[in-house]
Write a structure and sequence with these properties.
Length: 277
């Protein structure tokens, strides 16, 4: 794994390729959208280094549907999908345009399933809380693709492979979730949600996940229940894990993998993220 100090050199090299990188972002608490912390600072650093995409396609843990849908509204509405947070968080806006044209192109290019057009959803916090740092001007069109809650990880991985063409079109694909995510057993010390603290199994599984990602052991990552004896404690429901599979599915043989924000927090959550390119 590269050291964080190498991020500038690594990302700068991506500007010399026609293939757009792709990101899996561990987005963590909605409060990251308004806090100056190590995670938001890394997202801000990405804003200075990444190529400027023609559009952004986000697969967020916070949009689950029956079937699969893609947003076609322009502009997409802002969704504040959380409760009990400070007023400042509800006042956040990210006025990006949508791209009905790109949404329709994805629908046409996807052969194995039918993707439906959606005008009700917009940009949830899994998308805008990260993009407000990476592309703060909100001047790049953004669409979201939903997660079909009735399908298994293998199905999602196979669907993701049909999105590979987007990288050749200069489109940035982002998966936004958390690899380890169990809110029921969170432990927050001294009111610091982002303090490094974890159950033993969380640290162990975080290391296993990073190793499997770097080895490109995709079958093991798809069948995550077998990665560790406590995998179902770490991933009791898969909606925050599945966005990662959408990035694994579009990795190319020539890609490097760079892991960042590698941290276990609040007992049962990790912020570990990676870029391919």
């Amino acid at each position: 794994m590269m050291a964080l100090k190498d991020l500038h050199k690594y990302v700068s090299s991506l500007k010399n390729t026609s293939l757009m990188p792709a990101l899996f972002i561990g987005h963590g608490s909605p409060m990251n959208a308004i806090e100056d912390n190590e995670f938001s600072r890394t997202w801000k650093l990405l804003s200075e280094l990444l190529p400027v995409p023609s559009a952004i396609v986000s697969v967020s843990a916070h949009w689950e549907t029956k079937g699969t849908s893609v947003t076609i509204s322009s502009p997409p509405k802002m969704i504040h999908d959380f409760y009990g947070f400070p007023r400042q968080l509800y006042e956040q806006e990210y006025p990006a345009k949508g791209s009905p044209e790109l949404a329709k192109e994805i629908i046409a290019a996807t052969k194995r399933i039918i993707i439906e057009e959606d005008v009700q959803w917009g940009l949830d916090h899994g998308t805008w809380s990260v993009l407000k740092y990476i592309y703060p001007k909100a001047n790049i069109p953004v669409i979201q693709i939903s997660l079909n809650r009735y399908q298994d990880p293998q199905w999602h991985f196979e669907l993701s492979k049909e999105l590979t063409f987007l990288r050749n079109k200069g489109v940035l694909v982002i998966g936004s979730g958390n690899m380890i995510h169990n809110l029921r057993i969170l432990q927050v010390n001294n009111n610091d949600f982002n303090a490094e603290y974890g159950y033993d199994w969380a640290f162990e599984l975080n290391d296993i996940l990073k190793k499997k990602i770097q080895e490109r052991n995709l079958p093991a990552l798809i069948n995550y229940q077998s990665l560790h004896k406590d995998a179902m404690l770490a991933i009791p429901i898969p909606e925050h894990y599945l966005p990662m599979l959408y990035i694994l599915g579009i990795i190319q043989e020539s890609d490097d993998i760079y892991i960042f924000n590698d941290k276990v927090i609040a007992g049962s959550l990790n912020m570990t993220s990676f870029m391919v390119g």
